[in-house]
Design brief:
GMP Synthetase, Chain A, domain 3; about 30% helix; Luciferase, domain 3; Rossmann fold
Length: about 650
């Protein structure tokens, strides 16, 4: 079966040149889309650039404001205010606003636990639970502006907790449930959180991830925390509850009523802090505020995913990451959509768990990461082909550039060549999608996130800030503000200015390399430190990785640079093979020549290392920084708190010695 799969893949992906083909949306899809012609897109985009105040005011009018804003946009780089003077509430717009019509009985959240349990929360039920938990927060002494740390598995109570924080004006900071106690401690202390909300345990690949013990360890050095609320996910697990500090969710929720008036919050009131890794190794607390984030996530969810009232929408991200904030919880609920949450791993108990879920709930929109797609390819298309997947009408990609081969597999095997793919580029810092196809309009190129959304002004520039010619590599910047832009790094305004605004004065530096082709399509090449300068030639690691993965023996690849006395940088490729393939010196040379034939000799890897697994974060991103350290010095010095499987790193390190 594996041999058959490889043959199918090798005929499907004959060349990286497939990226130059155009894939158009069907006439039926275009006819029913929110944006249904290129002329409509161009008109929207032009208005958003020439008259952003009017454009974003019109969008914001779709939502509920207790008091209308006085100024739509106040901007003096790097400081932005949106809908200044307005009063609103994000939780009110996600919930209360939908209770006056038929949406109140519609499913807001469909949840499936890894063992197989199902819960469905209608908008009415979710509203009631959020109101109750908002009263719990009040009982815990949490007030507007207080920080609340949330450290949970993917259960509905996570969504309830952050919506309740938004309802009362508390600032939530969600810490991914796979982080260590040390990483949790650092984030709690940086935010100065007064309350921690957690679970006794989470379930992942059939095993328990003990969360409450990690909280206990972290709180040995967290003086600001006064209370801990524990949601019981696993009845049989034994944990320690500290009297006076720790409270069971199911007990404390009984002592409050289900009525709560949402706070009238200024548009610029802090909404959440989300920590993301930085080049210094110290996590950065990205601060987002209420009104602008609300408007941007509402707008992008509606247009990019073409959300309709009868859609079942599934974003596979964990709420511990920004994708989970914007496109599991807030964006879909603002649109009155049904959002699906799944607790566990995609390959438990077998590698077809995602496809089973899609058929079970008749999912229409599926949004996942290229890392997951490449894992699906490695596991084999037979797991996909066991299922109908006829309900799917739109696919999405998020988190990193998607290589054209993975795009084609996703399009053909999962989407049956009928589902447009929205390949989205954005960041924790941007809060919402910046570059993406609009599925009813944009001709697709595999591997390209295509064009900017309305209100986004990107440019590819050289080191001096001059626009580069089409087709040339450069640095991706954003030349104007947008509503969901980060407002600062929490507690460190100087770092905010230096990190994002010092490189190109007055412009936001994304930290990503990119090129724009002759059709105006953007190709993001990954982080600038993932762009290799070889003998004066700028090469994107994603491009070399795509060439490697296009070889029928390769399942996954990660490319990094190490210093070279002659060329400046040498290319080192870490390659994971298909399960039936055997590493050999002959195959190394074959792969080097394959890259040379796909891109050119300048891109030929100087070194190829075979590995069973690549070191990844718990969200599935390859940790190229660690691979770079191994390739350069053979040792690891940086932060590894986000690493999922330490054995992968140890094996690579041992092989180097």
């Amino acid at each position: 079966m594996k041999k058959q799969t490889s043959e199918v893949q090798s005929t499907a992906f004959t060349s990286v040149m497939e990226e130059h083909r155009l894939f158009h949306p069907s006439k039926e899809f275009a006819r029913n889309a929110h944006v249904n012609s290129m002329e409509v897109y161009k008109r929207m985009y032009k208005e958003s650039i020439l008259n952003p105040e009017k454009f974003w005011s019109d969008v914001a009018e779709d939502l509920y404001w207790f008091k209308k804003w006085k100024q739509t946009k106040v901007w003096k780089a790097p400081d932005a205010k949106w809908f200044n003077g307005g009063l609103t509430n994000l939780a009110y717009n996600c919930l209360d606003r939908h209770l006056t019509n038929w949406h109140r009985t519609k499913a807001a959240i469909i949840w499936e636990g890894e063992p197989g349990e199902t819960r469905i929360l209608t908008y009415q039920v979710l509203h009631r639970e959020v109101c109750k938990f908002a009263n719990v927060l009040g009982k815990m002494g949490i007030e507007k502006g207080d920080r609340v740390a949330v450290y949970m598995g993917m259960v509905p109570e996570l969504a309830i907790a952050i919506l309740a924080c938004a309802r009362i004006g508390a600032v939530h900071t969600v810490v991914f449930g796979g982080f260590s106690a040390e990483a949790l401690k650092d984030r709690i202390n940086d935010a100065g959180a007064k309350l921690v909300i957690t679970c006794d345990a989470a379930i992942r690949r059939g095993t328990l991830v003990m969360l409450k013990p990690a909280v206990d360890k972290a709180l040995e050095s967290c003086p600001t925390v006064q209370n801990v609320i524990v949601y019981r996910r696993v009845n049989e697990v034994q944990i320690t509850m500290s009297p006076g500090r720790d409270h069971w969710w199911h007990e404390i929720i009984q002592s409050v009523n289900d009525k709560h008036e949402a706070e009238h919050l200024p548009s610029e009131h802090p909404l959440f802090i989300l920590y993301t890794s930085g080049t210094t190794g110290k996590p950065k607390g990205i601060l987002h505020t209420t009104g602008g984030y609300m408007v941007n996530t509402y707008f992008t969810s509606k247009l990019v995913f073409d959300l309709k009232d009868d859609d079942i929408y599934w974003c596979t991200a964990d709420v511990g990451w920004v994708t989970g904030h914007s496109y599991v919880v807030y964006g879909p609920l603002l649109n009155g959509a049904t959002t699906l949450m799944y607790e566990g791993a995609p390959n438990h108990p077998e590698p077809d768990r995602f496809w089973k879920i899609i058929d079970k709930y008749r999912v229409n929109i599926f949004y996942t990461a290229p890392t997951a797609i490449r894992a699906f390819i490695r596991w084999g298309e037979q797991w996909v082909l066991k299922h109908e997947l006829t309900s799917l009408r739109l696919l999405g990609s998020v988190g990193e550039p998607i290589n054209p081969e993975a795009w084609m597999w996703y399009y053909k095997i999962v989407g049956k060549q009928k589902c447009p793919i929205v390949d989205t580029w954005w960041q924790t810092e941007t809060g919402a999608i910046m570059l993406s196809p609009l599925p009813g309009v944009t001709p697709l190129k595999p591997g390209s996130c295509t064009m900017p959304l309305p209100g986004v002004v990107p440019e590819v520039v050289d080191k001096e800030g001059n626009p580069v010619p089409d087709g040339s590599g450069g640095y991706l910047i954003l030349k104007d503000t947008w509503p969901s832009m980060l407002r600062t790094i929490y507690g460190d305004k100087n770092r905010f200015k230096k990190q994002y605004w010092s490189e190109y004065k007055g412009y936001y530096f994304t930290g990503d390399g990119a090129r724009r082709d002759k059709d105006g399509y953007f190709w993001v090449m990954g982080r600038v430190d993932d762009v290799i300068n070889v003998a004066g030639h700028r090469l994107g690691t994603a491009e070399i990785e795509s060439a490697l993965v296009s070889h029928h023996d390769v399942a996954e690849a990660a490319v990094v640079a190490r210093p070279d006395d002659i060329k400046g940088s040498a290319i080192v490729a870490f390659v994971s093979l298909e399960s039936s393939k055997i590493p050999s010196l002959l195959l190394k040379e074959e792969l080097r020549n394959h890259v040379a034939s796909e891109i050119g000799h300048i891109a030929k890897p100087d070194e190829i290392r075979f590995t069973d697994t690549l070191p990844k974060t718990r969200s599935g991103k390859i940790m190229r920084r660690l691979l770079r350290e191994i390739a350069t010095s053979g040792s690891i010095k940086g932060d590894v708190s986000t690493l999922e499987d330490f054995s992968a790193l140890e094996k690579l390190r041992d092989e180097d010695q």
